[in-house]
Write a structure and sequence with these properties.
about 25% helix, Alpha-Beta Plaits, 4 helices, alpha+beta, about 120 residues
């Protein structure tokens, strides 16, 4: 059984032609009480993400709503839990919407050492 309070992230990917749709979705997520945090749009690769993206943080109870909102836009996204295994979170535990993006997994924390929150200075869970 899934813990409905478990933390999750979604990485919303976009290119120049999709930027307006990504911005509109970001705006909608910012008004959604089920979303805990909406990150800035980064128009270049950052971390393991080689192309433009932004992330949203939410709890497992909102997975269906977040997934439906992303699917309605036609944008690509990676949805994953936030556990103590950063590599698994972005690979075997992840769910892709649309065409997957080849991530640079070499920059992810090793299993058992997920520094995601301290590394980015954001605590929302």
């Amino acid at each position: 059984m899934t813990d409905l309070q478990a933390p999750y992230h979604a990485h919303i990917y976009y290119d120049a032609e999709e930027r307006a749709a990504a911005a509109a979705l970001r705006h909608d997520f910012g008004r959604d009480p089920g979303i805990l945090f909406v990150g800035q749009m980064t128009d270049a690769g950052v971390g393991p993400h080689p192309i433009a993206q932004y992330e949203v943080h939410f709890l497992a109870r909102s997975i269906a709503d977040v997934t439906a909102a992303i699917e309605a836009t036609g944008l690509r996204a990676l949805i994953h839990p936030l556990t103590d295994d950063d590599l698994a979170d972005h690979t075997v535990l992840a769910h892709w919407i649309g065409e997957p993006v080849k991530l640079d997994v070499t920059v992810l924390d090793p299993p058992g050492v997920n520094q995601g929150v301290p590394r980015f200075g954001v605590s929302d869970f």
